[in-house]
Amino acid sequence: MAIVGQDVERKDWDTYFMDIAYMVSTRSRCPRRHVGAVLVQGKKLLGTAYNGAPMGVQDCSEAGCMIAEEWEIKQENGEEQMIKKQRCIRTIHAEQNLLLFTDRADREGSTVYVTDQPCWTCANMLANSGIKEVVYHRGYPKDSEKVVTLMGHKGIAFRFLEGYEPPPQAGMSVIS
């Protein structure tokens, strides 16, 4: 029971909005990764989205993942290495859904909180969306270097939320 007049510890805004992104991610039916994203202007929540199949289409839990394999040449320790990437192409990513279901005018100068660091495709879309900042919690090493470079080039603040702990109700193990 709270005592009237006594300050109760409040969450900071980053934690508050990332908690919402994680709770939104619980709507995802993807067996590989639940991702949630929220659009915030100042301290006002303007939209939420999660990853999943297009509306009215069977999702991964019903029809299985559609995995596409790609190969990329990457420089590591001065040597070229072929890196295999696997991506599910059945789902629309949370960031993409967020951009589809929010207005450009609302995105101008806004912040996107997303549970996972955006992939290359989502980063490109976010770079043209009018946002000023991306805050994420879980890394996505497959595209990280390129995404960080792009965000820097576009002048979009790109922050890893250090020390953050997701709400226990949003727990999920992630398949890399």
UniProtKB/TrEMBL annotation:
The keyword Iron-sulfur does not apply. It holds the Pfam family dCMP_cyt_deam_1. Residues 12-174 form the CMP/dCMP-type deaminase domain. Keywords: Hydrolase, Metal-binding, Zinc. GO terms for cellular component: cytoplasm. One of its GO terms (molecular function) is dCMP deaminase activity. The keyword Iron does not apply. It comes from the Bacteria. Zn(2+) binds at H93, C119, C122. Its cofactor is Zn(2+). InterPro entries: APOBEC/CMP_deaminase_Zn-bd (IPR016192), CMP_dCMP_dom (IPR002125), Cytidine_deaminase-like (IPR016193), dCMP_deaminase (IPR016473), dCMP_deaminase-rel (IPR015517), Deoxycytidylate_deaminase_dom (IPR035105). One of its GO terms (biological process) is pyrimidine nucleotide metabolic process. Gene3D superfamilies: Cytidine Deaminase, domain 2. The active site is at E95. Belongs to the cytidine and deoxycytidylate deaminase family. This is dCMP deaminase. It comes from Paenibacillus algorifonticola.
